[in-house]
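so i finally got all the pieces together for this one. its four components total, 424 residues if u count the protein bits. some of the lines might not be protein, just check the labels. i wanna see the whole assembly predicted at once instead of chain by chain like last time, that was a mess tbh
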Amino acid sequence: MEAVKAEPNITPRSLSKQARRKQLIEATIKCIADKGLSGTTMADVTQQAGLSLGIVNLHFQTKEKLLIETLSYISNEYTTGLNEIFNDEKLTTEQKILAHINFDFSRKITDRNKLAVWFAFWGETKSRPTYMSICASYISEIATNLTQLFAILKQQGGYSAVDPDLVCTCYTALSDGLWLDLLMTPKGLKPAQAQTVAMHYLTTQFPDHFKN
Amino acid sequence: MEAVKAEPNITPRSLSKQARRKQLIEATIKCIADKGLSGTTMADVTQQAGLSLGIVNLHFQTKEKLLIETLSYISNEYTTGLNEIFNDEKLTTEQKILAHINFDFSRKITDRNKLAVWFAFWGETKSRPTYMSICASYISEIATNLTQLFAILKQQGGYSAVDPDLVCTCYTALSDGLWLDLLMTPKGLKPAQAQTVAMHYLTTQFPDHFKN
DNA sequence: CAACTGAATGAACAACCATTCATTTTTAGT
DNA sequence: ACTAAAAATGAATGGTTGTTCATTCAGTTG
């Protein structure tokens, strides 16, 4: 674990306040991936960021707030990416769903450091209402959008037997489970294969649109 | 959180050594569910068990060993249940698969305290090789058995297009994801509904055997 | 009933770690 | 160049927690 600065030739304090916060959050992600949520100390995070011990208090007040901001950071990154797809007027419904899957198994999302952070927080949600409510809000937002896409495709494609809510629940659970697979058995399952598994399920529901 | 003894009328020390270990492990499960892995202290666990602080050291030497035994305990409970099904000579392949799903979404397995423990450990696997290897062993054992069941059903049922490995990966990921759903949105998804979702997937693969 | 065994207890200890804040360093304004 | 404000530092602090072990106590044996 080496200290890494965001930009080699720029002194640390020339970065703006917001950039410093981002630097600390990304150091936190790396630390959680390397040492776990319980094993991550303030000394670890600040050393990973190449800064001094007191810096977290200056920007986040407490460790707990830093952790909450870290969860919000990866949640926002995910929902923002999906909303861009959902709101893209140039894409057809079919293309949006394909783009959604593509995004779910892209490098950015299946990065094992970030997957470790997701599961670290998920593992604590039952005992931490704050984590729980952050997760609950992005979950329902994404489900609403995705269900709507499936409903449109059902109508347009004449898939009378398809239940959009069921397909949304099933697809979401499937991708969560595949992420767990990518985290736990990285030697066994690669992101591209995981995407194939997800496509395999969608093919069963919309065979005319998604051929294997 | 109240101290609860295993048997009201039996004094603590009349329990055998093994029963005492089980008592402590179950107290640990409750604590992890209530306070998270990082928030669980030795004082919490022993108080939950209604025993004194030093007892864990007597039976498990260290906290880390108690946690490892706790992960092994729930892993064994799960794999033992599945192996009983897999080895039951009286069941047909189709019945074994049905029993497998039934078990995955039974009360015993979808108990939110235990789900919280599963995800708590999964969230730390990347940084803890010991947790990782415990998980790796049960994962591969179950996958081997389940893939075999699907392969037999493919042959018997004439499902020439089915890929048993793919279906096993997909089903396993799906049930892991549904467990996450049960943990995170208990108000939204009930175990019986989760089971319906899992059945829905199997129906797409083996329509003659598993009708909706 | 007395001596013995080992399970259980919990006060005390030592290590760890989040947080504080007096001091130093950098930047921006004039 | 000088000054004031802002940012960053890191030694010191205090609270928490895993672990230890001398002592207590229940159950058993002869």
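DSSP finds ten helices and no strands in chain A.
Chain A touches chain B at residues 33-39, 112, 115-116, 119-128, 132, 135-136, 139, 166, 169-170, 172-178, 180-181, 183-185, 189, 197, 200-201, 204-205 (CB under 8 Å).
anyway lmk what u think
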